[in-house]
Specification:
three-stranded antiparallel beta sheet; about 10% strand; binds zinc ion
């Protein structure tokens, strides 16, 4: 069960990295680190598995912020200065979604971000 959960968390975060062209070797290695740490954490606290996917996304977000910059950026607000999306609920789950805190709108579910650009579909 836990393996399936971690595979789907990995797939979801990787999809969102790829959607924003941030799936560098560095980002993937941050993702692997986050998965490893959360796996240990989930083994200590099995009820926490609900939160794993969202927490892994937050871990990767933090790791990227320290190195390459903000991910994922909001592409929905035209006039606002550059700002990132955040995982809601803040605890990481259940059912984590990316939210723009500037406009208060839910942009996409975790793993469902679209690529930016007028030709791409809005998630
Ligand atoms: Zn926004």
């Amino acid at each position: 069960m836990v393996d399936t959960l971690f595979l789907s968390a990995r797939a979801a975060v990787l999809a969102d990295l790829q959607a924003r062209h941030r799936a560098s070797a560095q980002a993937v290695s941050a993702l692997e680190d986050a998965l490893e740490q959360r796996r240990w954490w989930a083994e200590q606290w099995p009820e926490g598995t609900t939160y794993v996917a969202g927490l892994v996304a937050q871990d990767v977000q933090d790791a990227l912020f320290e190195t390459v910059g903000r991910w994922p950026l909001c592409v929905s607000c035209d006039d606002a200065p550059e700002h990132p999306l955040y995982i809601h609920p803040d605890l990481g789950g259940p059912d984590p979604v990316w939210v723009c805190e500037e406009s208060g709108t839910e942009v996409a579910g975790l793993g469902g971000l679209s690529s930016p650009g007028p030709a791409g579909p809005r998630a």
